[in-house]
Amino acid sequence: MQRLPALAAVLLLASATTFGESTIELDDCRISAGPGYPGIEARCGTFVRPLDPNNAESVTIALKVAVVPALTLEPATDPLVPIAGGPGQSTLTFYAGWFTAFERVRQDRDIVLIDQRGTGESAPLTCDIDDDIVEGKYSAEQTLSATRQCLEQLPHDPRYFTTSVAVADLEALREALGYTALNLYGISYGTRVAQHFARRYPASTRTVIIDGVVPPQVPLGPEIATESQLAIERVLDRCREDTACNERFPNIHTDFQFVREVLDADSVIIELPDPVTARRVSIEFGNEQFAAAVRLLLYNPRTIALLPLLINEAANGDYAPLAAQFQMVVEALTEALNIGMHNAVMCTEDVPFIDWERIDHDALARSYLGPLQLEAIRTMCSVWPAGALDDDLREPLSTDTPVLLLSGAADPITPPRYAEMAAVNLSSAWLLTGKDQGHGIAAVGCMPRVLAEFLATRQLEDGVADCLQDAFAMPFFLDFSGPSP
Question: Which of 51, 324, 413, 450 stands 20 to 30 A from 441 (CA)?
């Protein structure tokens, strides 16, 4: 008689079994990264959880769950669980866009996905607040008014949408699906979730992979602008050191400063086809839009490769290419992040722990992003209610569970030194840094194979990751026909 794979047996039980306080049924479905992207076959369902886990009479919320089954008929009993960043991004959407990074893992293991509460289709914390508010484009009074309006519109109490509650959801899901333990992969903010799950549920954690590491002891916010300034300087320096790039753009540092000064004095109106609809639109492009475009283009080596060309074009009076990139990256970010959940996390886990007296305000002012974003977050959090917070969430993880820490040397928000800080109390840890790579390197070069081998052996053998040093980094674009050879 043919044996059912472990997941199939679970699914048959799940259709008729109550696990603890929650029942979950999974049916055939397809998940994708959005319109126009291919669908991925999975088994999807709704996981019902109490809004307040500490209140037996709490109302419930529905969390979106998907399981992408392993390619073998006899998968391991410990799946891989990706956790998206943001905070505020859907994990199902993230996985569908990055699935190639985990295909080798899926040969032997199921992939278990859950949209963290407040994101995707898991009781999203939605309101009509303008995303520009996070970039500091409103006055303090406008920011306070918009934040209060958002709070009034929220469908659920935001105090129960923090990391401390989310890890309890994940452990409950593990129990409901009958897995023995979890292998966690977290990216960006998801690294915080992965570390805290491993702290709270060590017996349920087999391995941890954190990519673009957020160390628990560092509150996000104060270093966003200064780290991004260092990142753009590294890109411009790299162009100067590259013979072809330097010959094409010999004054790239001066060009960058010139564009900042021109747009700071006055914005320009640009007409261009909308990148999605192709309809002609007019947009106001000033220093704020320029800063947002540069910041988001710095996240990925492929878009980093465009920056010298875009900056040079703008310095010569053509802002349309940079404005078009701005339209695309900002629209993608707006669709990806849920502002309510973002604030629920930031205003509980980060802003209250910022030492405002120690902030280098001069460095903030010198950065191309400036202090406006940090000030906007501080203003929003002054009226946002603080949520559930475990006392130890901000402590470095101390564990003998195998942990693989991944960094990109060109990462504009979570530099390699953050991984070193997170590893301070880890007794079984490996740190890898990708040269010229950005934020998140799981899909880079040989990394899918490295991840699979790490999960199989729970260690990193000598030489296994040497291939990362030769990973492809997109050469700079010298014109719009493509990158240089």
Answer: 324
pLDDT digits (tens, 9 = 90+) for 314-331: 999 999 999 888 888 777
Residue 483, beta-bridge partner list = 477
Residue ranges, CATH 3.40.50.1820, the chain: 6-218+393-470
Quickly tell me which residue has 């261009």 as its tokens.
Answer: 272
Identify which of 177, 184, 206, 183 has the alpha carbon closest to the alpha carbon of residue 6. Answer: 177
**Tokens linked to 158:** 């935001």
Which has the closest alpha carbon to 120: 157, 176, 161?
A: 161
Under CATH, which number does the domain 6-218+393-470 receive? 3.40.50.1820
**Overall pTM surpassing 0.70 (yes/no):** yes
Query: Which residues have C-beta within 8 Å of that of residue 323, sequence separation ≥ 6?
Result: 270, 272, 283, 285, 289, 293
Three-state DSSP class for 180? coil
Residue 398, C-beta contacts closer than 8 angstroms, at least 6 positions apart: 199, 425, 426
Q: What are phi and psi of 30, to 5 degrees?
A: -130, 140
DSSP state of 347: I
